[in-house]
Every structure is written in C-alpha cells, then in structure tokens.
Amino acid sequence: MKSGLVLEGGGMRGVYTGGVLEKFLEERIFVDYVIGVSAGACNAASYISRQTGRNKEVTIGYVHHPDYISMKNLLLRRELFGMNLIFDEIPNKLVPFDYRQYNEATEEFVIGTTDCLTGEAVYFEKSEHAKDVLAIVRASSSLPFMAKPVEFGGRLLMDGGVADPIPIRKALSDGVTKPIVILTRESGYRKKKSSFARVMPTLYRQFPGIVKSMEDRYLRYNETLAFVEKLEAEGEILIIRPANLYKINGFERDAEKLTHLYNQGYKDAEAAMEKVKNFIDNKKNR
Q1: Which value, to the nearest 10 degrees, does the dihedral of the CA atoms of residues 266, 178, 109, 112 take?
Q2: Contact at 8 Å (CB) between 10 and 241?
C-alpha cells in the first residue's frame, strides 16, 4: 500500500488545509506521498518540514502586512500577493523554513505547475529539486492576473491549479493506493466559467497555453470533483473538506474569519482521525 495526500489550492481558503495538516502533525500522521498545487503546495512544504504552527503563522499572522495582499502590489507590480515577501523574506528571514528537516523527510513530494506556452500540467518532484522548493511553490502559486509567470527549468510557469486543480489522477498514476484528498470547497460546490477568461487572449496573447487552460479550467475542475466524489462513494479515497466557508474567498484578509476556517480544518481532521488512521493503516504512522 502507498498512502498519500492530495492538496487542492484556493488562495486564502488554504488556511483550512493548514488546520488539517496541523492536526496531522500533532498526531504524527505522515504518509508516503504528498502532492499539492498553489496554496496546497505551500501548506505541504511546512508539513513535510515538520514545522508545527508555521502554516498559521505565515498566512494568518502576516495577512495584515502591507505587502501580503495589496491593490498597491497589483497596480505597481502586477502581483496582488507580495510574492517576494511570501517566498523570500518570510521563509528565509521572518519565519525560517527548515530546509534540513524538509530534505531529510522521507515523503515523496510533488508540486504541480502549469506551462504558460502549452497549458499542460508540469510536475516537480522533491527528490530532483529539493533546493528549489521555494521557486517551484512560487510558480505553483502564481495565478494569472494576480502574479507574474516564474521562469524555471527552461519553462515559464504559473498556478498549478489551472491545469490540474485537484491532482488526484497524478497521485494514482504515481502508485498511491490510499489517497486522502483535502479540498477547500464545501460539498456540492461546482465552479463557474471565470469572468477573467474573456480578457485572457488580450492580456496573455504570448502565452496561448495558459489562455486555453484558463478558459477550460471550470470544466476540468468540475469533472475532477465528480471523479473524486465517485471514488469516495466507492471507498477508494477519503475526503476532508469544509462544511461551510462563511463567505471566505481566495483573497480574504479578515484574520478572525481565517482563524475560524483554520480551526475548522483542525477540528475536522480531529473528528476524522480514527477514520484516517484506519484508512491508511496504523503501521504507516511513525
């Protein structure tokens, strides 16, 4: 058996995943394989580096920092989120990321990105790119209109949630037989076509792949949701997701709302813990 975590993105809704993973850390539940996109990849990195409390500190703790989420950033730098703050200053200076523990962790870790030219999903494995984790997670978190493409490995890359929003099929193809999927949307949610899709051809005409992927993103997302729900009904996967988002969007700056969602993730994981342990088999806990 090969246990795994599949982590959806969702911007600031990702604090829910942070709460779930905090409980996993507390219970020392570590799986064989982790895959994440965007905010899911961000949360996964601190889980793999075994840094309790870090996900909460670097998101909710900095949400009111003037450069964290700012229209000024968007107007001056074409970045709604302060990407240098989030992927350089915080992990390297303010809330140091534990590279040593990250490198020593035994989990496979895969980060999903989207190629701007082809629109295809491009995955990077920790075993091959351990020293580049911040650059790759930054690429995976660079949503069109909200951030600039990231050049890495000879490609221009953006948000991994565009090409593969819930990377369950990649996990299955990598041999995961016991996947736990952590979603950041409530049951019954289905995505609508983005209003941004109509202006993509004008603003991103040099990147035809990302234009096409953004146009079809809602269809791909909804089809993947239907697939994971089918697997859940068949008992093949375990899903943890919020019951109620309390009108939180991906750019939420209300620390109280975000804390509530983080705590909800923690409590949901706590309630599901026996089921989680039974699902992945107790011998996987270490």
Answers
A1: -90
A2: no
How many residues make up the chain in this entry? 286
Q: 130, 125, 107, 127: which is closest to 33 by C-alpha?
A: 107
Pairing type for strands 121-125 and 108-115 reads antiparallel
pLDDT tens digits, residue range 140-163?
999 988 899 999 999 999 999 999
Q: Which of 62, 1, 57 is nearest to 32 (CA)?
A: 1
Give 178-219 pLDDT, tens digit per residue: 999 999 999 999 999 887 778 888 888 899 999 999 999 999
pTM: 0.94
CB-CB contact of 223 with 212 (8 Å): no
pLDDT confidence of residue 203: 83
User: What are the tokens at 135?
Assistant: 């650059």
Q: Please give the pLDDT value at position 286.
A: 39
Comparing C-alpha atoms, which of 20, 25, 284 is closest to residue 177? 284
Paired tokens of 169: 């099929």
Q: Which residues neighbour 170 within 8 Å (Cβ) at sequence distance 6 or greater?
A: 35, 110, 112, 121, 123, 164
SS3 label, residue 99: helix
pLDDT at 260: 95
Distance CA 23, CA 14 (A): 15
SS3 state of residue 160: helix
Judge whether 183 and 241 are in contact, CB under 8 Å: yes
How would you classify the pairing of strands 155-158 and 108-115? Answer: antiparallel
Query: Which residues are 33's β-sheet partners?
Result: 4, 108
Single-letter residue type at 130: A
Contacts of 70 by beta carbon, 8 Å cutoff, 6+ apart: 80, 82
